[in-house]
Protein 1
Amino acid sequence: MGRIEEALRRAKESRQTSPGRDGQSETALYTDPLNGAGTPRRVGPQRASNSGFSVFNEFWDLATPVSIDPELLLQHRVVTDDQPLMVRSAYKMLRTRLLQRMRSNGWTRLGVSSARSSAGKTLTSINTAISIAREPNQKVILVDLDLRRPSIARYLGITPKHDLSDYLLNDVSIEDVVIKTSIERLLILPSTGSHENSSELLSSHRMRDLLHLLTTDNQDCIILFDFPPILDADDMLAFSPNLDALLFIVAECETRRTDLQQVKDLVADLNIAGVILNKSDDHSPAYY
């Protein structure tokens, strides 16, 4: 058992034996985060724990720090202070509208995907996670669940010693996988290798354990999952019962109408947090 799992276990035991309002011992009720195959998870705002325990803080303390080359980020169009104001403003607008909708619905688990490849879903996942993390008091964990063609680590120019598949397949502790950069309040669970049986990995007991870790006593934290394209693999659909909502990416002049209709039918039971038009030719000037 890793240090985070052990800390979480101790926090649960502490709450279960804490005195209730009437002075008697009360037992906390827990709900399995995976609440039924084929049924999308619908939740309200998570109740704050009075134990003072935070999974995100435990992750942050144990995460492997990595440095990122600013020139590489600029080359890969990752949002930094060196990007044009118009680009930064667009992601700030996305962040604000997305957070308003997620908070009003109590959503914390957000999937990002597209109909087909090359729509820009992974770059949108990264930039959205960075933008959200820059808001004070908002924490983000970015998880690369595109186990067929993972690319978050490549975009950021990092080479992790262990990745998510090591946790899922090789019994590596999750604290050996999670990494942090100089971006405050942002943690990353990277993937590197390609796996043909990716949807089976997403349905494994180890993935269940990971979801439980990510969502228990993790207030003010959004878990953002980057998935393979919906029509190229069944991964997102297999995982969708564990999501609160989906952020869908459309590429202008590339995403076909027939693909959109097919995706619409497939995700009919899933909340849509928003649809992002990517690769647009609209170059509206910034206000300032």
Note: DSSP finds eleven helices and eight strands in the chain.
Protein 2
Amino acid sequence: MIIFCIAAAMLSADREYPTFIENTFGFIIVPLQSLNAAIADHIEDAANYFKDVDRLKEENNELKEQLLLQNAQLSRMEYLKSENDRLNALLQMDNKYTDFTTVSAKIIAKDPGNWYSNFIIDKGSDDGLQKNMAVLSGDGLVGRIKECGKNYSKVIAIIGDSNAITGQSIRTEDIGYITGDLSDIGSCKMEYISFDAEIIEGDEIVTSNLSTIFPPGLKIGYVKNIHTDTNGLTKFAQIEPAADFRHMENVLVISGDFSDDPEKDFAENSDTQNDY
């Protein structure tokens, strides 16, 4: 071994070219070393990639948390805005009907469908409400209380009520009797208008002083069109209600008896009686 080592050292001194054996080992070792270096580079790249993926996941989760927080804040702001709008609507209604004693109520249920023709409010006899009290929205007359419980009331709207409301044109003071129009859902029908009446399209219709349950002057709606009855003696008109019966959250109930005759208690009569 000593002689071999000395010989190898002497042979490797001042050489210009590697030996055959070294070249042979080079052909074998160098590709393996290159492959090992490439694998090491790929492993390092993969490790960096997964590090970047973990970092991006962490940043993505942070962004999601921030987005959820912002959405929660926006939802809170929208809720507060909605609640503020609701309170403002109630305040405007209270200010609009200052001549009457009113009770504000919130709609808590309704019949199926798009229209608020029958619904339930969260106030009842414990709050001083009674059957047949007038129900209003910010735009005008909604209907009347059909049934009154201790802490709730059922309301029937003018668009679905078969009882007639005495209404009149503000412009001409002509009288007619208004019911829900079954042929045109969401509208009302004003019947028994005098043939000589000068009511025209666009006239504002309000409750008259002949009503037994509604105070006079409450806005009902506007004349959409007017026609002559088949008998040729009277007219009838379609009325576009002032209240929005598709979108409704809060109402006001007018408490009090507006009958000219104290003995007329409409609440004790049947629901089929007309308000003549």
Note: The radius of gyration is 43 Å.
Protein 3
Amino acid sequence: MYGTSETVNKYAATFAVDQPSLTIAIESLPNDRYSLIQPFMPRSLPAWLLDQQNTPQMMQLETGELIIPISSRGTVSEDLRGRVSLANPLQFVLQLRRSLAGLPILESNFHPQCSGKEFSLALIRGWSLEELESLEIVCSHVGLAYSALYWRQRLEQSRQQAALIARISRLLNSTLNPDEVVGRIVAELGYGLRCDRSILVDLRDDPVTILAVWDYPERRLLPLEGRQIYRTYWQNIIDMFMQGGASYLQMGVHDPQPDPLQDWMHSIEIMSVLLVPLFIQEEFLGQLC
């Protein structure tokens, strides 16, 4: 979530990690007024936000704040198995609060002939119908802009994935020795997926053998030399692999009872890792981390 300092103090549990704050100039206000918009994690989702997920509609809270849903038309989602479905059209919810100091007090827009959507808008106090209609138009444009950016990002991701597959295919068909091919493929995957580190692990032996390592340039990572890891630590992961699954592990910083595998990952400062099983024909080899 993003909000002004006042909103953050009201709703935030913690600030969002690794998300920059935005300083926005509001040109329509005197003295070049600026507002600092901060990312934050809410303590809990308010009930009105949960209602908006089910039935998005413009509404006013008892506190007087105006709630405007922003939908993104035509957005679809894709799961890990490639199945595509229509995503929830609600993308954002804009929460506005206006100070009535110095402004004429606007009563309800209610009119006896109002019906349907007009009736719901007419119950909103402190905002004229013209203002509400203008806000709806602006938010509609925001939703369309988000859709355009979303599809542009998906197109760029597809282009990058196709280029990555092409580079790996060229390596597989090259005349390089097998060890060099494996090392370059691990590097291509790590760089292409924007990882801090990419590791190829042979899980057939005990202790486990690390076959190839690629580290992102200019990032200070703890070396893996001399860090033995035993196959028994990976047994739960191996069992999952043998059932046809992959695994994403996110390390708990304050986990009271970490297992040996998590201890090892903590020792090399891993906070999250994607584990992909590798098979040669039907024989299990290991994993790409």
Note: The CA atoms of residues 43 and 189 lie 37 Å apart.
